[in-house]
Amino acid sequence: MKYLLGLAVVMTTFPALAADLTKMEALGKTVFFDPSLSISGTQSCAFCHDPAAGFAPSSPAANEGGGVVEGAVAGMFGNRKPPTAAYAFAAPPLHHVMEEGAPLFLGGGFHDGRATGNVTGSVLADQAMGPFLNPAEMAMPHAACVVARVCAQGPETGYDVRLTDLDPQACAMPLPETLGADCATPGADITLDEETAAAVDGSFRLIARSLAAFEASSAVSPFASRFDNWQAGKGDLTQQERAGFALFKEKALCAECHVLDPGPNGEPVLFTDFTYDNLGVPRNPQNPWYAQAANAAGNEWIDRGLAATLEGDAIYAPFASFQEGKQKVPTLRNVDARSGPDGRRSYMHNGWFKTLEGVVHFYNTRDVLPACDGDATEAEALAKGCWPAPEVAANVNHDELGNLKLTTAEEAAIVAFLRTLTDERP
Ligand code: HEC
Ligand code: HEC
Question: Is 258 touching ligand 2 by the criterion CB < 6 Å?
């Protein structure tokens, strides 16, 4: 579904160069790579958002199988594949516009938009408060633990910028003496008096805002791919890559959703209009979430995507049933960035796809090839020439994908084009 982003604000102030981060961005960078901010002391944001893999996960175990990365507490898994943390900064808060008499939802962070941007005013800052406290991610029992640990850092521990450099009062609140021990205990019950809680909340938001600033900086989102150089007239693409781009725009309909317009603030093309769609992606039977104690539905669990987010909203709840199975259109920048020659990637919200060839073949033939007999991995489906049933049968988009009538050479050209979207790092 194509939605032209409003270009009212054409304000093109791009972040400073990687080597030249603001204090806010520099603090965010240190926090992003700091494993001491997880309960095990071993998991930083970068564990699941590896710069070498375009800020998506590089974990072979996750990419080859269930897509989901294990959290800081051994054996704890969430339910989705981590998307890239790069270029997400441009997402507007979750909102709707009316289109043909029905609301079209766009914006928000996470695959399902539940980081709405309504808490801090920034989608990424709302998002950044999630992983620290998520029991299946960094698993810290309370925001006070994160604040206390960041406050304890300084140049001697690799923090060139301290939290108090951004706000002199950020570490001034009195914290309970038992906090250190409690913070090492998963699920510990930590209660603070109202005033301390409010101060902790303010400092936690400041940490989240520093992460958001880092993610928006050119250190994470540099717009420095071969495609960008070519657009700027500074380099060339091969004939096959250019043919792939032409197909992407026209015959293959990719740009209907992975749009080529400037971003909401005039950013270079982001390859997403931040809308939601159900592509009919198969369930990933290897998703470790099916066997997690926290998943009451067991093997019957399905990923409802945007519907579950809307259901929790007083105004949007009545529209939830029309959004079952819809996931956010992701950026395609760095879809082929890999941590090395054997680096693995997986695609879509559940990581069922392991190859870009498989993804493009699916868009081309989803409605042409026969249904597989039950669940199958991508490799099995490609070998047998079938596609498993969609994870969510409702709302599957049949208008813009499923039978594109692309030749094998055209599929290959689109894949070649996608590979030009990898940022070249200094
Ligand atoms: C254990 C793995 C893990 C860790 C650690 C982790 N994330 Fe994530 N991240 C995920 C998953 C999974 C999602 C998608 C969740 C969903 O959609 O329900 C995600 C989503 C995101 C997104 C949303 C991107 C978008 O397009 O909306 C951003 C940004 C992000 N993470 C940043 C961070 C930051 C900052 C940290 C550290 C504070 C962090 N992540 C730590 C797994 C992780
Ligand atoms: C109808 C809108 C729509 C169209 C058309 C579309 N996409 Fe997508 N694309 C999406 C959505 C939504 C997702 C995420 C789905 C999910 O997670 O289940 C996605 C995901 C992807 C991914 C996986 C990215 C990742 O990081 O996991 C790739 C690659 C991709 N699309 C490439 C393409 C190409 C190439 C085309 C054209 C052949 C195309 N898309 C056409 C909406 C669309």
Answer: yes
Q: Residues 297-301: contacts with CB within 8 Å, 24+ apart?
A: 301/79
Q: Are 214 and 51 in contact (CB under 8 A)?
A: no
Report residue 20's pLDDT band, with 50, 70 and 90 as the boundaries: confident
| Count of Cβ atoms closer than 10 Å to residue 223 Cβ | 17
User: For residue 250, what pLDDT is reported?
Assistant: 98
Residues 37, 132: contact at Cβ < 8 Å?
yes
C-beta 83 within 6 A of ligand 1: yes
The CA 182 to ligand 1 mean position distance, Å, reads 25
The finding on whether 257 has its CB within 6 A of some atom of ligand 2 is: yes
Atom of ligand 2 nearest to the CA of 328: 12
Q: How far apart are CA 347 and CA 350, in angstroms?
A: 7
Which residue's CA is the closest to the ligand 1 atom numbered 40?
45
Per-residue pLDDT tens over the stretch 363-415: 999 999 999 999 999 999 999 999 999 999 999 999 999 999 999 999 999 99
pLDDT digits (tens, 9 = 90+) for 124-161: 999 999 999 999 999 999 999 999 999 999 999 999 99
- Phi, then psi, of 99 in degrees rounded to 5: -135, 120
* CA atoms of 204 and 215, how far apart (whole Å): 17
**Considering only CA atoms, which residue is closest to atom 39 of ligand 1?**
45
What does the pLDDT read at residue 413? 98
